[in-house]
Amino acid sequence: MFQMCGVFAQFERSIIQERVKAGLERAKADGTKLGRPGLSELTKQEIVAMRATGMSMAKIAVELGISTGVVCKVVKQKK
């Protein structure tokens, strides 16, 4: 009995995976951009300017409402 439940669960999971993949492919075909939105060039310039004045990465993140990881990434890219 438990084996049959396991088989049905695996089958249902594979069907869900196929539907998700088909939906993503259809969205790509329609021209939808997938993933997180990127930062604007203006925001990147603000980060670099604030860092040049000696402001800490944590304060920059709080000021602009972004994560410290994003600030670090932008600072490393601009070096």
How would you describe the overall organization of this protein?
The protein is mostly helical. The protein folds into two domains: 1-35; 41-78. The radius of gyration is 22 Å and the shape is elongated. The model has no long low-confidence stretch (mean pLDDT 93). The longest helix has 28 residues, at 2-29. The chain has helices at residues 2-29, 41-52, 57-64, 68-78. It contains four helices and no strands. α2 packs across α4 and α3 (57-64) packs across α4.
The helix-strand sequence is: HHHH
Helix content: over 70%
How would you sum up the major sheet?
Answer: none
User: Mean of residue pLDDT?
Assistant: 93
Q: How many beta-strand segments?
A: 0
Low-confidence stretches: none
Notable traits:
single chain, 79 residues, mainly alpha, 75% helix, elongated
Short description:
This protein is mainly alpha-helical.
What secondary-structure arrangement, pairings included, does this model have?
Layout: H1 2-29, H2 41-52, H3 57-64, H4 68-78
Helix pairs in contact: 2-4, 3-4
